[in-house]
Design a protein that fits this description.
Order of helices and strands: HHEEEEE
Shape: elongated
Structural class: mainly alpha
Oligomer: single chain
Distance between the termini: 147 Å
């Protein structure tokens, strides 16, 4: 009877230790899964930022080709998408918002900052040119083709993301996605077509033994 009385508490204590160990292991696994989710989310966001830079530069190149082929800047993303011959490989979404909407940079807005109300498809920068007027756009129906979406119209030299979120990467000194402006900067060539001429350098020294030229005398 004594042995039977002592055996029951021993089994109960072992079961208690097993339960505690299981709870601790479960807590550790939960913590590790939470950390893994954060790491994966962080990495996915970094990849979207790299994709934003890539797609923004694709639109810059498309604007350059459009200007070269048609002699003017495109007036909308639709003109870039539907240009014949083609100037862009495909229609690129904004990878941050996963939307067809991009902010449009108009001539004269290269160095501007987006105001408090900026960030939408009809938004403009803090110092817009007089010809640019923000236009409210209705919400499109789900499944509307990109070519039929209402978008900002006007000569465009670049694009930017409409997301106001803080970025992980600091890109050209800017820390929010809608400040990452991708702008086509046209090169201004000099008279000879090779850019701005360099300033004249110093005159070469006179050969040994030569006399400096005598200035002509003024008439009396």
């Amino acid at each position: 009877m004594e042995r039977g009385g002592l055996a029951a508490p021993a089994r109960g204590s072992e079961g208690g230790y097993t339960l505690v160990a299981f709870v601790v292991a479960l807590a550790i696994m939960s913590i590790m899964m939470g950390v893994a989710v954060q790491v994966i989310s962080f990495q996915a966001r970094r990849e979207r930022e790299a994709e934003l830079i890539f797609r923004g530069q694709q639109y810059v190149e498309a604007i350059r080709l459009y200007k070269k082929k048609f002699g003017r800047y495109p007036n909308s993303l639709k003109e870039i998408w539907m240009a014949k011959p083609r100037v862009i490989r495909k229609k690129w979404k904004d990878p941050i918002t996963d939307s067809w909407y991009w902010g449009i940079v108009h001539p004269g807005q290269e160095g501007g900052k987006i105001g408090k109300g900026g960030g939408g498809p009809g938004s403009s920068f803090g110092t817009p040119t007089p010809t640019v007027t923000p236009t409210p756009f209705p919400t499109p129906k789900p499944g509307t083709p990109p070519e039929q979406l209402p978008m900002e119209v006007g000569p465009m030299i670049g694009v930017y993301s409409t997301s106001p979120e803080k970025s992980i990467k600091v890109w050209e000194g800017r820390t929010t996605y809608r400040e990452w402006k991708f702008v086509y900067k046209e090169q201004k060539a000099g008279k000879g077509g090779g850019g701005t001429p360099a300033p004249p350098g110093p005159k070469p020294p006179s050969p040994p033994g030569s006399k400096p030229p005598v200035p002509p005398r003024k008439g009396r």
